[in-house]
């Protein structure tokens, strides 16, 4: 077992490269913040870092599966639910050992796959657990071009979101003013999982996109602390006008322009969002959860 304070070392990076899609949120989260601690057992890791809370990011690699880090349209990966039983057994044993150390560090965990949640549940009870389906956009290192997902109706190709239209819609904002953080929090469907301070930090540190109507922010999207796209929201009075699609496509464009693979998480019950992201070109990866363990976990 390894327990230390570190950045993402070459050794850790090689382990993350075994399953690049599983590693996406880990690389994103620690791109701008240090790793407080690392726990390792075999091919399993728990990496700890601080944002709104001290989070433990879980990772367990299958050595026999190797996919390139720069995910391309033809790339494949082994879904977590399809991993060989022998690996899940080994991963379960490794993670069980690691969680004994986690008890004295934090009750918060991210990047938790279903089999990992079972290991956590065997060690204690959940105060809360948020399940999502992760999807990724099979595209990195360059901006959308002919032959990719863009088509004649795409806002960044036609400029259709620029300037006023008959309904009073202005263009896409280059970014959202961090001063709008309270407004976004007040209108969020996930208030219990976020805060004004968290949203302000995200607006200051990463990409965002919004649409104004008569000077009011009516649609927006930004990113989470693992650099996943999220917070997609349209005020109820402005829905069914394609605004969410315009904002999300703009976020994808901005992420691809940085040479990064866009990814996001959708709640299973949110069928409207699932249809939207699949329409744009996102592909399914795996089910993941965020959890907080109940005392006396700590």
TrEMBL record:
<dbReference type="InterPro" id="IPR000182">
    <property type="entry name" value="GNAT_dom"/>
</dbReference>
<feature type="domain" description="N-acetyltransferase">
    <location>
        <begin position="170"/>
        <end position="298"/>
    </location>
</feature>
<dbReference type="Pfam" id="PF08445">
    <property type="entry name" value="FR47"/>
</dbReference>
<protein>
    <submittedName>
        <fullName>FR47-like protein</fullName>
    </submittedName>
</protein>
<dbReference type="InterPro" id="IPR053225">
    <property type="entry name" value="Acyl-CoA_N-acyltransferase"/>
</dbReference>
<dbReference type="GO" id="GO:0016747">
    <property type="term" value="F:acyltransferase activity, transferring groups other than amino-acyl groups"/>
</dbReference>
<dbReference type="InterPro" id="IPR016181">
    <property type="entry name" value="Acyl_CoA_acyltransferase"/>
</dbReference>
<dbReference type="InterPro" id="IPR013653">
    <property type="entry name" value="GCN5-like_dom"/>
</dbReference>
